[in-house]
Amino acid sequence: MKQKVVVIGAVAAGPKAAVRIKRLQAESEVVLIDQDTYISYGGCGIPYYVSGDIPDEKELRSTSFHMVRDERFFEKAKGVTTMTGTRALAIDRQQKTVLVENLKTGEQQQLSYDKLLLATGSEPVVLPIPGVDLPGVFTVNDLHKAIAIKDLIAKGRIGKVAVIGGGAIGVEMAEACKDLWGLEVALVEFKEQLLPNLVDWEMAEILAKHLRDNGVDVYLQEGAVEILGNEDGWVRGLRTNQRTIEADLVLMAAGVRPRSILAREAGLNVSRGGAIVVNEHMQTSDPDIYAAGDCVEITSLVSGSKFFAPLGSLANKEGRVAGDNIAGIPSVFKGGVGSFIMKAFEMSIGSAGLTLAAARAAGYDADLSLTSPSDRAHFYPTQAIACFLLVFDRRTRRVLGMQGIGPMGEGILARINGAAPLLCAGAAIEDFNNIEMAYSPPFSAAIDSINAASYVAENICDGRMRKIDIRDFLAFMENPDSRPDWLLLDVRHPREAEPFVEQFGSDRWLALPYDEVRERYRELPNDKTLVIVCNAGSRSYETQLYLRQVGIERTLVLAGGMNVVRRLSVDWLP
């Protein structure tokens, strides 16, 4: 059926839908509109362009066969009429027209449509503080700004950078400025951790330490109060509620919000959070108008609630589904689990599903297992430690989320990708126990990290493991006198345990090697709660089980073990 389709927004979801419609309905007229002159680019690659990993911005706009995705490309190769530098001003739903304006000439015209797709994306949050309009202050939301930022740095005009916002873009931009260019970088986050709402505190703290170890100053629980200018009118620093940070460049990465004003003014349903409301067919409250990408909310396949997921991977899927339905194929996009991964220097961090905080806020009886296994067979020469956090519901045994952090490579990605389909299917702990992952010593352990995390979750759920979480352990170590009835029991090799015994004394930190517990358990005091410590937690758990068999019940296992503690910013380690 021949029809006229207008697509507003040409970065991810819009081009995907436009091209899909032309493939399915070659006779239809498809018009792609965007207010920018750069279209269909990989926005998630901007930090890597600034860092120099991607040397030319055209690579972000190119296909895998090295054709630049510009107006000519879409018109000649895809058959899609393309209008760049053109802003959509208003939608007339009764007349089924869109009023657009050429930003160069000011000329306005009405475009008629049979079907309309809104792929207007998201817009950066600009903090309402003095100085945001100073030269040298940038949001990181389009390719033009990325080019300007890189140009300033490459010309040697920048020595110090302040990044506002510890989300993914903020962390990536902090790395980009530090890693290649060697700039002084400060990262300021208002909340108590980096990557809020994406990972839990334990994972975020490991990331924060890694950034600090690589020369990035990380300031948490600090709010930006004012951006300061110099006598020439250029930015000179950032003032927070605790300090003043010198800076020649301020990058504002305080989050994004859906760009939905066009939909709202047209009378379409918009959520309380500002996202366009769509059904599984990506259809808005007007059956002839669809929406996809960062401007919409989607359904969490874990909790069933709606959430905002500004991810390029999801935008492309949503665009395809919208294109299918516009072309008459009844496709559905059921939702997602927010699968996420990023790199920071030589570390990768990822997640899928709910954090512990989000799960509890949603009403689940949620708990976590924290593990720190080797990322491949322990005997393989290049093995290293990775840390995983599995969130689960004690009542139903359903797994609600998984997070991981470890060395750069495919290890964390593989586990997050393995967990995501199970989360979509509502899998329980037992399903995670039995998931089959490919095994070879250079790639993984025989008991995969996903399986190990779920085994610990099962032991916690069934009451076999009684644990102390890392945060509670650290609080105790900061103030041991708060729990005079607690005693650290270190079951590691004496060479590992002795420095701690020497530092804290045997009345606080007791060494009893794992392989001597069965012979020497009678030496343990009966009037103390034993906090059992090893590197990964497995020896501590086995010790706890044995001590219970011989009548010693007051024990706690340190979740994640010293592998996790050593990756946190802890000043009491020997």
TrEMBL record:
Keyword NAD: no
InterPro entries: FAD-bd_OxRdtase, FAD/NAD-bd_sf, FAD/NAD-binding_dom, FAD/NAD-linked_Rdtase_dimer_sf, Pyr_nucl-diS_OxRdtase_dimer, Rhodanese-like_dom, Rhodanese-like_dom_sf
Presence of keyword Flavoprotein: yes
Cofactor(s) of this protein: FAD
Superkingdom of this protein's organism: Bacteria
Residue ranges annotated for the Rhodanese domain, each copy included: 482-570
GO molecular function annotation: oxidoreductase activity
Gene3D superfamilies linked: FAD/NAD(P)-binding domain, Rhodanese-like domain
SUPFAM superfamilies assigned: FAD/NAD(P)-binding domain, FAD/NAD-linked reductases, dimerisation (C-terminal) domain, Rhodanese/Cell cycle control phosphatase
Signal peptide (from-to): none
Keywords: FAD, Flavoprotein, Oxidoreductase, Redox-active center
Similarity annotation: Belongs to the class-III pyridine nucleotide-disulfide oxidoreductase family.
The protein's name in its UniProt record: Rhodanese-like domain-containing protein
Species per Swiss-Prot/TrEMBL record: Desulfofustis glycolicus DSM 9705
